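Human: I wish I could look at a protein chain and see how it folds. This is the protein in question:
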Amino acid sequence: VLGICLGMQLMCKKSEEGTVPGLSWIDAEVIRFRNSDLFPDMRIPNIGWNDLKFEKKSKLFTDIDDPKFYFLHSYHLNINKSDIILTTSHYHYDFISAIEQDNILGVQFHPEKSHKYGMKLLKNFVELY
């Protein structure tokens, strides 16, 4: 299973956005970006291109070096199992941008809007999983 943006968030236990529980496939909750006094110029939602910092190897990112992906989101994961984090990204502070737990994968970005990197990621998912 590959969850994209909200799809990844739905796999979590709960979200600050509402009271309905998530699928609980991932031991995490979904939290809103924190724009406090520390980040007065932080605009929410986070819209635009961003880099990924690789935390762990995965077949999902095979032959994808130094990628940029397109993001459009106001919420991100707060995770309890750091060993499932594949990538993080930075928008005023670091946040989780991709996860993998067994056959469950999730990305906070939009590969379908991310040109060659997104197409390669989707191809990897179809061919390697």
